[in-house]
Design a protein that fits this description.
Elements (H helix, E strand, L loop, with lengths): L17 E3 L6 E11 L2 E8 L2 E8 L2 H16 L9 E7 L8 E7 L6 H8 L2 H19 L2 E2 L8 E4 L4 E4 L6 E2 L25 H16 L11 H10 L1 H5 L1 H8 L6 H20 L14 H47 L2
Antiparallel strand pairs: 1-2, 2-3, 3-4, 4-6, 5-6, 7-10, 8-9
Length: 339
């Protein structure tokens, strides 16, 4: 549950509504709602440049904050942390005196994180979380904490497969109070920390995302906190393989996202090495042959070879004798019997 459960009613508009920018004059036709939070509603909209995700909010300060985050994303070289910002403007809604702030951003298509894992398998969890930690490290270095980090705010785009942020509404500057949160991913809900915007808050949520990957239906604390989470880790084979990493993240022992990312990569390398290690053939002690046994078993073979050599030698001797006698007989006939 969020700390505010309903978006402002003024931001709810039916499909087909045309949103016209007061300052830039760009028009967007509302197709359907994509989601809502504490500070507004996000719609799929179509403009002259194609489809966009358009957020309406009565809170202009919130819009300004989110736009600043998206601008920060765009400044990170070779990165696509979140959606690209297309337009920022105000909308003069008919029948209303004050304007409603909005911004249009890239519409990222792809399955939600949990749907992707369900379809592809648990081996993708670590791959995507490594990407997530890299993105968080860059976000944190820019002075921002994502805050409301959960699978619902993560989309997996294709070609190449990449995890993307799609809702930066809860993003908060470091040191301030978290603006938006969802109970299951909030360390305050589990009694394992406060709601101050720091790196540990996001890394706690990353651990809970991994746990949520193993338990898609989630679960409530039922009067417990750390003990329940640790027990759930022990009871699931995938989570148990990453037991130490998850416990460190839940207890706030990581200094930054990069440190957690390195640990996860190390776990993957160890797991891969274990799976690919060749199985050594075990030689049975009973089948091992001692030198004495070897000599003993070879003796009959040597005796047979010796007998064979003796037979061959005897045959050759007999041939030589018979040949000599034949020669002598022929000489006798030649000298004494022939005229």
């Amino acid at each position: 549950m969020m700390n505010s459960t309903t978006a402002n009613q003024e931001c709810k508009v039916p499909p087909g509504t045309i949103i016209s920018g007061k300052w830039h004059g760009n028009q967007y036709q509302i197709i359907k709602p994509l989601g809502h939070g504490a500070n507004g509603v996000v719609y799929l909209a179509k403009g002259k440049a194609g489809y966009s995700a358009l957020k309406l909010s009565e809170n202009s300060m919130s819009i300004t904050s989110e736009v600043n985050v998206l601008k920060h994303f765009s400044k990170v070289r070779d990165s696509s942390l979140g959606p690209f910002l297309h337009d920022v403007d105000d909308w003069l809604k008919p029948g209303r005196s004050s304007a409603i702030a909005f911004y249009a951003m890239e519409y990222i298509q792809g399955p939600a994180y949990l749907d992707f894992i369900k379809g592809k398998g648990s081996e993708w969890i670590s791959v995507l979380v490594i990407q997530l930690l890299s993105s968080l490290e860059q976000l944190h270095m820019g002075g921002w904490i994502f805050g409301d980090l959960k699978p619902d705010n993560l989309i997996v785009s294709s070609s190449p497969v990449k995890l993307r942020f799609v809702d930066v509404g809860g993003t908060t500057q470091k040191g301030r109070a978290i603006k938006e949160f969802t109970d299951f991913f909030d360390r305050g809900y589990w009694g394992m920390g406060n709601r101050k915007a720091d790196a540990g808050y996001d890394l706690f949520a990353v651990a809970m995302i991994i746990i949520n990957s193993a338990y898609p239906k989630r679960f409530s604390r039922n009067g417990e906190g750390k003990q329940l989470l640790f027990r759930k880790i022990e009871e699931h084979p995938y989570l148990k393989k990453h037991k130490r990493l998850l416990q460190k993240a839940l207890c706030g022992e990581y200094i930054n996202a990069e440190e957690m990312r390195v640990d996860l990569i190390r776990n993957l390398k160890y797991e891969e090495k274990t799976v690919r290690a060749p199985v050594k053939k075990q030689v049975s002690v009973n089948k091992q042959t001692s030198p004495a046994q070897s000599n003993h078993s070879a003796a009959p073979k040597r005796r047979a070879q010796k007998r064979k050599r003796k037979r061959i030698t005897g045959f050759l001797d007999a041939v030589l004798v018979l040949t000599g006698l034949f020669v002598l007989y022929m000489l006798y006939i030649y000298h004494f019997l022939l005229p």
